[in-house]
Design brief:
two-stranded antiparallel ribbon, 16 helices, 4 strands, mainly alpha, two-stranded antiparallel sheet
């Protein structure tokens, strides 16, 4: 019989939300220092301080807090954040700086004063993804970041950071080209990043060398997929064949995740390597994605139970000041060695906060449906 952690989950969600405004304003000194010399666009590095993928994922967690649990504080933080960014300005467009637009594509209607501005901003960014972003062979979204070109490379991060936004903006505006492009990017990334033997996903693929770099099954990278596919299904109505293909990839991945789950309920930062450290953001992402897949009737009770095993450790890793511990720092491509991922330091990050929020929100929704 599963233990009921409903009240503990509610308590920790309150702590995570109360801390979130502070987390969003935490300056990533290492990232900012790197941008001083490696900013590809050459614009003001200060524009990236609060508008990157780390904040973008976090903002999506806040949106879920409002849309699913009707938390007014979460909506207030979101609206305040986007209004502030109008004054600061926006950095150059790339995959990672697209991430904050995902939450905006849902929340912009609540800010009547700036709604038109946000609509223009989102459309400008969507056009960029379609026509301005460098493409790989076969028209893949090259994982261009603020500091790295990554020529000819597909990364599993791209689907959550940029393609979900394109899907939702396409749906909202009725732009079929954007919708079809979003679906195509999911299918293309699945083709080159999913491993047929294990069902897990590689961090990246290069068309230049036609290989998967260090062939690492990176934890958080895999969790972007576990989260992104059910999210896509929530946003778009896919054709039968498209949906069945993506469902198959997701089912294979989740079956592998159940196999490699640690007895603690956590997952390792290299999913198939027990010598790598246990990592909370990947664990929360897996838990959320699996419970979403269960809700959508893609996987069964065995997978659901695996996700539920992760609830207690995630609750335990949320401190009393609302910070999720055991989160690995932002992780570039491990190009030569899997050991690269074992050396990534652990530190609190906005995306860790958000992934814990998403997981605990989905746990509460499932608990209420019993």
């Amino acid at each position: 019989m599963q233990t009921d952690y409903t009240q503990l989950a509610k308590d920790k969600l309150k702590l995570l939300t109360a801390n979130f405004a502070t987390t969003l304003d935490d300056e990533d000194e290492e990232f900012m220092k790197n941008l001083q010399s490696k900013n590809l666009a050459g614009d003001d590095p200060k524009l990236y301080r609060y508008w990157e993928w780390t904040q973008g994922v976090g903002l999506y967690g806040l949106w879920k807090m409002y849309s699913k649990l009707h938390d007014k504080e979460a909506l207030d933080i979101l609206l305040s954040y986007y209004k502030r960014q109008i004054g600061i300005g926006f950095p150059a467009k790339n995959i990672n700086t697209t991430a904050p637009l995902l939450a905006l594509s849902f929340v912009y209607e609540y800010d009547k004063e700036n709604k038109a501005f946000y609509e223009n901003l989102m459309d400008e960014w969507a056009y960029y993804l379609m026509t301005g972003l460098p493409k790989t062979e076969e028209g893949g979204f090259q994982h261009l970041t603020s500091d790295t070109l990554n020529h000819g490379e597909l990364w599993d991060d791209t689907l959550f950071m940029a393609v979900l936004f394109l899907a939702n903006r396409g749906k909202t505006t009725g732009n079929k080209k954007w919708v079809e492009e979003a679906k195509y990017q999911f299918l293309l990334h699945a083709r080159y990043l999913s491993d047929k033997k294990t069902g897990l996903w590689y961090h990246g693929f290069t068309f230049i060398g036609r290989h998967n770099f260090a062939e690492a099954f990176w934890g958080r990278g895999n969790s972007w997929i576990t989260m992104a596919i059910p999210e896509l299904f929530s946003i778009l109505s896919l054709d039968y064949a498209e949906k069945k293909i993506l469902e198959g990839y997701l089912m294979s991945q989740i079956a592998a995740l159940c196999k490699y789950q640690d007895e603690s309920g956590m997952w390792h930062t290299l999913v198939d390597d027990k010598t790598s450290y246990l990592e909370a953001s990947a664990t929360a992402g897996f838990g959320y994605g699996i419970l979403k897949a269960y809700e959508q009737k893609i996987v069964g009770e065995d997978a659901r139970d695996a996700a539920l095993k992760a609830v207690k450790p995630i609750i335990d890793f949320v401190s009393f000041d609302g910070v999720l511990g055991m989160v690995s720092y932002g992780t570039p491509m491990g190009r030569e060695s899997k050991d690269f991922y074992k050396e990534i330091p652990l530190r609190p990050m906005p995306y860790g906060q958000s992934m814990a929020m998403l997981f605990l929100i989905q746990y509460l929704i499932m608990s209420e449906q019993k």
